[in-house]
Amino acid sequence: MRGVIYKSTGSWYVVKSEDGHFYNARLKGRFKIDGIRSTNPIAVGDAVAFEMEDEAENRVMIHELSPRRNYVNRVSPANRRLHHIIASNLDQSLLVATLRDPRTSVGFIDRFLVTCEAFHIPAVIAFNKADIYDEADMVLYTDRKNMYEAIGYTVLLTSIKQFESLGTLKAVLQNRVTLISGHSGVGKSSLINEILEDANIRTSEVSNWSGKGMHTTTFAEMYDLPGGGRLIDTPGMREFDIADIEKTELSHYFPEMRALLNDCQFNNCMHFNEPGCAIKNAVVQGKIHEERYVSYCSILDSIRGKVW
Ligand SMILES: Nc1nc2c(ncn2[C@@H]2O[C@H](COP(=O)(O)OP(=O)(O)OP(=O)(O)O)[C@@H](O)[C@H]2O)c(=O)[nH]1
Ligand SMILES: [Mg+2]
Ligand SMILES: [Zn+2]
């Protein structure tokens, strides 16, 4: 039988077979995949082959992984030399950001975008909780929207309390496989809940005294969209760690810089303090947004272990 992984806890999996049945799955023996130093051999979105292990208990055994079209990984918090694969076979990645409760920084958004560019996965940004934005927040939203749309990204304004705001989001998600990321508490699970209606996935309670406690997402999990497409909910993250990017290639992952790279005086220009730098000139002329350049410098500075 063949199927797709819908959930992974690291020790067991949920797989959906081609004929639409869900099974609990585990890996056969010493399952090893060449070439990827990962803490988890199988991730959400993976296409796998499996066999029945216990029909009464709905349990199957995975014995083969199909080649991945693409994947997104992070540096493992436990061991920086290992990667943790978040999900695979994606059409796009949605960042849920907020301007309040909590505020997502431009630096965080730009790290997300660089990661998507490096993995060749189209990125969309949704600013959520629009219902609690005041006038100043809306001015900020318009600034951010203009900044990111000018360089080719789709930017949306959403709120789970403003049903009409979800129409555009639904259209963007339809018939695609979308990985949803963002800080904890920005509303990733709530948005998925609204969009799926019957998915009933757990979100944090608004009131602390409700007795139900917090329901933060702990494992990546995939859901089918009615009418086609899939959404992958992920646990909130503090920071995007830029894995596997060299300092010299960072500017390739800033779309507004790509076209100018041949115009720098030095072909190994890092666009930091070199003379005759086309990128710095573009920043001075206002053609590249200063905040984006600040993000570039900060990410450049954070890439470890490379002498330049
Ligand atoms: N006012 C307002 N609150 C929202 C909105 N979306 C989500 N929330 C609230 O924000 C809180 C966190 O929502 P979650 O959906 O659990 O957030 P999450 O991004 O899934 O968080 P993690 O699973 O921890 O990563 C809950 O109290 C939601 O009710 C919104 O559009 N407006
Ligand atoms: Mg969640
Ligand atoms: Zn330069």
Characterise this structure.
The chain has 308 residues and is α/β, with parallel strands linked by helices. It has helices at residues 106-118, 135-150, 166-173, 188-196, 255-258, 278-284, 290-302, and strands at 2-8, 13-17, 22-27, 47-54, 59-65, 71-75, 83-88, 92-98, 123-128, 154-157, 177-181, 221-224, 230-233. It has three domains: 2-69, Nucleic acid-binding proteins (OB fold (Dihydrolipoamide Acetyltransferase, E2P)), CATH 2.40.50.140; 90-233, P-loop containing nucleotide triphosphate hydrolases (Rossmann fold, 3-Layer(aba) Sandwich), CATH 3.40.50; 247-302, Ribonucleotide Reductase Protein R1, domain 1 (Orthogonal Bundle). The strands form three sheets. The chain has a six-stranded mixed sheet, with helices on both faces. A five-stranded mixed beta barrel has the order 1-2-3-5-4. Strands 6-7 form a two-stranded antiparallel sheet. α1 (106-118) links the parallel β8 and β9 (123-128). α1 (106-118) crosses α7 (290-302). Bound molecules: guanosine-5'-triphosphate, magnesium ion (MG) and zinc ion.
